């Protein structure tokens, strides 16, 4: 699910061109962790953020099916109601999140198909 609609059109790229694929299946969820657990259980192919599945791939629980293709970029944002809330603890949280995210991406391909 993407918002209130089924995400049945997956877009991938190989560095030169964009490839769109229409997919269908017997399962639909708006819960990213449920989809990850289905994939780990061998219930099908999942199109996931690398941050969601990097540990499972490294542990051998999931396999990247198309390592030469990259999935769509997905922004990750830290939202504060007002700039005044950018206190030292919030800035430290932001720096820690950036560091942890980089650990998952550096040297790895953020691939979407698993």
UniProtKB/TrEMBL annotation:
Query: Which SUPFAM superfamilies does this one have?
Result: Periplasmic binding protein-like II
Which Pfam families does this one have? LysR_substrate
Domain of life from the UniProt record: Bacteria
Q: What is this protein called?
A: LysR substrate-binding domain-containing protein
What GO molecular function terms would the record report? DNA-binding transcription factor activity; sequence-specific DNA binding
What is the organism of origin for this protein? Answer: Pseudomonas syringae pv. avii
GO BP: DNA-templated transcription
According to its UniProt record, which protein family does this protein belong to?
Belongs to the LysR transcriptional regulatory family.
Domain named LysR substrate-binding is located at 7-101
Classification via InterPro entries: LysR-type_TF_proteobact-type, LysR_subst-bd
Q: What is the organism lineage in this UniProt record?
A: Bacteria, Pseudomonadati, Pseudomonadota, Gammaproteobacteria, Pseudomonadales
